[in-house]
Write a structure and sequence with these properties.
Membrane topology: Peripheral membrane protein
Subcellular location: Cell inner membrane
Largest sheet: 6 strands, mixed
CATH superfamily: P-loop containing nucleotide triphosphate hydrolases
InterPro entries: AAA+_ATPase, ABC_transporter-like_ATP-bd, ABC_transporter-like_CS, ABC_transpr_PhnC, MetN_ABC_transporter-like, P-loop_NTPase
GO molecular function: ABC-type phosphonate transporter activity; ATP binding; ATP hydrolysis activity
Keywords: ATP-binding, Cell membrane, Membrane, Nucleotide-binding, Translocase, Transport
Structural class: alpha/beta
Length: 269
């Protein structure tokens, strides 16, 4: 269970990016986080996995407080939080298998990590997951030789290799074509059910949020103004979240991760 209570994040003297958020996610729920650019969606996920430090509030994962952790405790906590990025965050010169096994870096010794000598059980698990998402035949292929959808599947498997207790996906379809983005959303939906894993997905495409998730949380200016079932996400809710922007369902993708203000580097372990 993920429990967020009175979460607030402020950068310097600026207005808060997040203000007093309360959210509980349990079981194998798939939750969409929607809102215009700058609403605080990505910041919320980065507070959960502690890529940024919350200003105040509480974040608990299965009863364990995440706020304030440092050093080894923080590294251990991050092992339990899988993250899928819009920009994939793969090491292009490495093979698919090597990128997938990077999900085990928080569990192996420095020597094993440097020499890439992972336990056989990890390698077998990697093959199982890659077969599940139909990329096992690319195991020895360089990551930069894959399509966008294939690269995102590598990112999903890498996150699952952590054996996470929650999976966060930050605009995982924004860099993909419509058909591929639908496939990735279906994949995340099915994996949540198969692995009994709660999944939080930041997404700009409201239509996909209503189709592939069972709960929608709407943010505006860092505040939660909607939390309910897709069936209850009416045009009034859409207007409240996006300020009457009728084209919100087809809103263009957010800029690449590397160009966003306050974006933190990939630091899952």
């Amino acid at each position: 269970m993920l429990e967020i209570s009175q979460l607030t994040k402020r950068y310097g003297q600026d207005d808060p990016v997040l203000t007093g958020l309360d959210l509980t996610v349990e079981g194998n729920s798939v939750v969409a986080i929607v809102g215009a650019s700058g609403a605080g969606k990505s910041t919320m996920l980065r507070c959960i996995n502690r890529l940024v430090e919350p200003t105040s509030g509480s974040i608990k994962l299965n009863g364990h407080e995440l706020v304030g952790l440092k050093g080894a405790e923080l590294r251990r906590a991050r092992r339990r939080i899988g993250m899928v990025f819009q920009g994939f965050n793969l090491i292009d010169r490495l093979s698919v298998m090597e990128n997938v096994l990077a999900g085990r870096l928080g569990y192996v010794s420095l020597f094993q990590a440097v020499t890439r000598r992972y336990p056989q059980a990890d390698i077998e698990r990697a093959f199982q997951l890659m077969e599940r998402v139909d990329i096992a035949h690319y195991a020895n292929k360089r990551a930069d030789e894959l399509s966008g959808g294939e690269r995102q599947r590598v990112g999903v498997v890498r996150a699952l290799m952590q054996e996470p207790e929650v999976l966060l996906a930050d605009e995982p379809t924004a860099s993909l074509d419509p058909r591929t983005s639908e496939q990735i959303m279906m994949l995340l939906q099915s994996l949540a059910s198969e692995l009994s894993l709660p999944v939080l997905i930041n997404i700009h495409n409201v239509s996909q949020a209503k189709t592939y998730t069972e709960r929608i949380v709407g943010l505006r200016h860092g505040k939660m103004i909607f939390d309910g079932r897709p069936a209850d996400f009416t045009s009034d809710a859409l207007d409240a979240i996006y300020g009457g922007i009728e084209a919100a369902q087809d809103e263009p993708p957010a800029p690449p991760a590397a160009t966003r203000k306050h974006e933190a580097p990939h630091e899952p372990f």
